[in-house]
Design a protein that fits this description.
The protein is of the alpha/beta class and 301 residues long. The chain contains 15 helices and twelve strands. α1 runs parallel beside α14 and α3 runs parallel beside α4. It starts with a helix and ends with a helix. Bound molecules: 1,3-dihydroxyacetonephosphate and iron/sulfur cluster.
């Protein structure tokens, strides 16, 4: 069985498997650690194994490599890339830096190493509000995600936000009408959504948070029905934590096509061949980008 092969190879090669909540349930089942982007980047610096296999998208593997330059970081599919991770230009950052003296460039971890290298600090959706509030600067250029930026701005009204036009296609184009229909069908359900969702979805939410925030909320709630506004992969952990509850997703199934590229077969193959290795970015980029990740880990404490 492929699962047994994966376990055997993992042991033989001294490898550890990290998986994001958005990958397929059968891949999550093979992981030593499953989590949101923040948990996985914290975890990545605590591991003893020689090889890290990252079941997620490129920026996650790249961050793990930058934080662990001496380890071999493998990904089952190196083409699994988050489109939002590219959605900001250097001009946007340069213009804001020229205009404001008192500016922090805050970069969502869903970004390339190059974009991180233009920034002052990284954040994830789990720690963005906390970190932005701690920053000494008044003006915040938040890149690349406009929706997370608006969510953080609403929770840090003392700051002046400058927005960029990036977004996650999966959450930006989620249909608010489909959430409204679910609410009409299940009026006693709580609506839990990711801050990458568009404003019309956020308006309808009882809770807005990262994937692990959504999972923890459902796990601790007395409610038994939840409408979920994020990628369907979270259902595996939701059902594990709340087997008694019912979860409803929008009719247009929220699938991340890049996370869906991570299959059991590709996980087995990369453990066998060790050929899909994540490389460090060029040295000048790596040094600055790594600093933004380390600042995130420090500020989030
Ligand atoms: P989390 O950090 O909440 O897991 O989000 C990652 C992501 O890619 C959301 O689309
Ligand atoms: Fe990127 Fe959206 Fe997929 Fe998350 S769900 S990895 S933000 S494309």
């Amino acid at each position: 069985m492929i699962q047994e092969e994966i376990l055997r190879l993992k042991k033989e090669k001294d490898a550890v498997i990290l998986a994001h909540y958005y990958v397929a349930p059968e891949v999550q089942e093979m992981a030593d650690y499953i989590g949101d982007s923040f948990f996985l980047s914290k975890k990545a610096v605590e591991l003893k194994e020689k090889i890290i296999v990252f079941c997620g998208v490129e920026f996650m593997g790249e961050s793990a490599k930058m934080l662990n330059p001496d380890k071999k970081v493998l990904m089952p599919d190196l083409t699994a890339d988050c489109p939002m991770a590219h959605m900001v230009t250097k001009e946007t950052v340069d213009e804001a830096r020229a205009k404001y003296d008192d500016l922090a460039v805050v970069c969502y971890v869903n970004s390339t190493a190059e974009i991180k290298s233009w920034s002052d600090v990284c954040v994830t959706s789990a720690n963005a509000v906390k970190i932005v509030k701690k920053l000494p600067q008044k003006n915040i250029l938040f890149i690349p995600d406009k929706n997370l930026a608006h969510f953080v701005a609403a929770n840090a009204p003392e700051k002046n936000f400058i927005y960029n036009d990036g977004y996650c296609p999966r959450h930006e184009f989620m249909d608010a009408k489909e959430i409204a229909e679910l609410k009409a069908e299940h009026p006693d359900a709580e609506v839990l959504v990711h801050p990458e969702c568009n404003a019309d979805i956020i308006k309808q939410a009882d809770y807005v948070g990262s994937t692990s925030g959504i999972i923890n909320y459902a796990a601790e709630s007395k409610n038994k029905k939840f409408i979920i506004g994020t990628v369907k992969g979270v259902i595996y952990e939701l059902l594990d934590r709340r087997p008694d509850a019912e979860f409803y997703f929008p009719k247009t199934e929220p699938i991340c096509v890049n996370m869906a590229k991570i299959t059991l077969e590709k996980l087995r193959d990369v453990l066998l061949s060790e050929d899909k290795e994540v490389m460090l970015p060029p040295e000048d980029i790596n040094e600055k980008a790594k600093l933004t990740l380390e600042r995130m880990l420090e500020y989030a404490k």
